[in-house]
Amino acid sequence: MEYNNQLPPITMPEYGRNIQQMVAHCKSLEDREERNRCARTIIRAMEAIVPEKSTALDKETIYWDHLAIMADFELDVDYPAGTITREEITLKTDKPEYPGHYIRYRYYGHLLVEMIHKVCQMEVGPERSAAEYFMAMQMKRDYMTWNQETVEDIKIFKDLFELSDGQILLTPENCKLNINPNTLDRPGKLQKPINSKKAKKK
Asked: What single-letter DSSP state applies at residue 8?
């Protein structure tokens, strides 16, 4: 009898071991068309297991992102445009340093990026999980502050995955980021006069 602790770890536990095994089988197929058919079958199974609540038109992309991650980016199939790649989540070390700190997403700020790197050095456990949640919340707050619009959690999770070099993986199923837009101090936000009565007097 096999026990779970004797089996290889699952990359994305929310989909279960069967999906991970289907991905491994898909990678072993030699015919590209057969691999494509198998990949589409896996995507439909993933949608059934973990329905994406987002109403975005490209919501299916997240499943292809997850498929690529579970396959360790070694599954050669026809991914849709916009699917995440290994290059997008790998921090390139050969880029020259520029004054002002190079940041892929400037609205997050270099201090937060440095904090993400420190969190990646923490041991897996409750403290690290809490820190990862804090990072995601702060990223969503920063995004909404500077872009002055709402943002799907999955966008934040994808950015956090990239900025952490693939070491922090949050999903809508295990993390919810609830932020009231009215609590954000956005640039250009009008401030109420200190004394409104005096302001009305001529």
From this structure: P
Distance from C-alpha of 3 to C-alpha of 19, rounded to nearest angstrom = 18
The C-alpha angle with vertex 147 and arms to 160 and 82, in degrees rounded to 5, equals 50
Average of per-residue pLDDT values in the chain: 77
pTM given for the model: 0.46
Cα 181 off chain centre by: 21
Cβ neighbours of residue 200 closer than 8 Å, sequence gap 6 or more: none
CA–CA dist 202, 9 (Å, integer): 73
Mutual angle of helices 61-70 and 32-49, in 10-degree steps: 110
Kindly list the distances between the CA atom of residue 110 and the CA atoms of 59, 167, 200, in Å, as whole numbers in the listed order: 29, 18, 43
Alpha-carbon distance values, 133 to 51, 127, 158 (Å): 22, 10, 14
**Domain locations in the chain as residue ranges:** 7-84, 91-183
Q: Which residue, chain included where needed, has tokens 């009231």?
A: 180
Q: Is 154 helix (H, G, I), strand (E, B) or coil?
A: helix
Residue 93 has pLDDT above 70, yes or no: no
Supply the pLDDT for residue 48.
86
Instruction: Give yes or no for residue 92 having a pLDDT over 50.
Output: no
